[in-house]
Design brief:
two-stranded antiparallel sheet; 18-stranded mixed beta sheet; single chain; 381 residues
Length: 381
């Protein structure tokens, strides 16, 4: 399995705002919901398959005690990533926050020689079924009769994203094995990832000894409080259906309106902003603009589609921060400095550089979001 553990997240979930509604006010709850879905496994799976299963084979061999002791933090994260990708499994995955909010989903993940394919079905909240084949994700929303197609290239939890060099994590986190426990009738090795400063949270992770899958993890505050807990309540190293059957379900869009998430790579400077990263260890992963267009649209329609304000994603390899910038409007004054917390995920909205409005979402302490907000500057074009 894998983990939200923010598990760093570039939320690429399309968001549609009413004309009278500012982007920042309509984006926060969809972002929180999307991050919760990432916690329910999707963002943990490999986003670039490239024949990994073919070269390495499906399945993960167990490690000996000496092999486990020899792993550094980068080695542990790589093992978690490979276990998520290379195992076939099914089960029920739940997320519980300190506020009492619970999300549950049914997960099927199939490893095959040239691809990985999975299906997640919401067991709580709004009806939703999400399919992923390699990097393509299709979200079925039965109540709206809509299928949203996206291509996921965001970083995953417990996987080293592009731009974060090996060794950077060790500068900001300490990894330590803390024994083993029985969990859902399986033997789990317990790994603690403790931050070296107060600008990020820590994690406790239970890893299945047989398969290497993450059975459960907790996100922990500096004071030792469990902010969020996610894990399997049931797990089997098999699925009730094969990859071909999941693919057939994924392609059955009869009766649904299909929309595709069209994202354009951009930079903050192109929009008149700069942000010099104010927290050591975080790096810029990407900046994009997103629009939703019908799946049947031609290239001209794609080019003419209206773009939302800019979104940039920053990560230290475990924690992720999404930064949304738009022009400031007087209707936003009432929301100045407002924040929200759901489990380990914090949000903050505020006016910046006189002309701008920022909305930030991240699995980090509020202090970290405030440092990012204070570093945003307006740049003359």
């Amino acid at each position: 399995m894998g983990v939200q553990v923010s598990m760093p997240i570039h939320i690429a979930t399309p968001v549609e705002c009413a004309p009278s509604q500012s982007f920042s006010r309509c984006v926060v709850m969809p972002l929180l919901e999307a991050r919760r879905w990432c916690a329910l496994l999707l963002c943990l799976s490999s986003l670039t398959w490239a024949g990994a299963a073919h070269s390495a084979g499906c399945g993960m061999p167990p490690l000996s005690s000496s092999q486990m002791r020899a792993l550094n933090i980068d080695g542990w994260l790589e093992r978690m990533r490979r276990a998520t990708d290379l195992n076939t499994y099914s089960g029920q995955f739940n997320v519980l926050s300190s506020s009492g909010v619970v999300s549950s989903s049914r997960v099927w993940h199939v490893c095959e020689p040239e691809r990985q394919i999975e299906r997640m079905e919401a067991l709580s909240g709004n009806p939703r079924i999400v399919y992923r084949q390699n990097a393509e994700v299709r979200s079925f929303l039965p109540a709206e009769r809509v299928v949203k197609i996206t291509s996921r290239d965001m970083p995953r939890k417990f996987a080293l994203p592009h731009g974060v060099d090996e060794g950077m994590l060790a500068a900001h986190y300490v990894a330590q094995l803390s024994g083993h426990e029985q969990l859902i009738s399986r033997t789990a090795d317990v790994l603690d990832l403790r931050p070296r400063d107060a600008l990020r949270f820590g994690y406790r992770i239970w890893l299945d000894r047989e398969s290497g899958l993450v059975l459960k993890w907790q996100t922990i505050s500096a004071g030792g409080k469990v902010l969020e807990e996610a894990g399997f309540s049931r797990l089997a190293l098999e699925t009730p259906v094969g990859g071909a059957q999941i693919e057939a379900m994924m392609n059955d869009v009869v009766g649904y309106r299909v929309v595709r998430d069209a994202r354009a790579v951009t930079t903050l400077h192109d929009h008149g902003w700069s942000l010099h990263v104010p927290v050591p260890g975080f790096v810029l992963l990407n900046c994009t603009q997103t629009s939703l267009v019908p799946d049947t649209a031609d290239k001209a329609a794609l080019a003419a589609a209206p773009l939302t304000p800019v979104q940039c994603v920053y990560s230290d390899g475990l924690a992720t921060i999404s930064v949304f910038l738009e022009a400031y409007g007087e209707d936003q004054r009432a929301y100045e400095g407002q924040g929200m917390r759901l489990g380990a995920t914090q949000t903050l909205s505020m006016r910046v550089a006189q002309h701008g409005w920022v909305t930030m979402v991240g699995e980090v302490p509020l202090l970290t979001l405030r440092r990012f907000a204070s570093a945003i500057k307006h740049v003359e074009q």
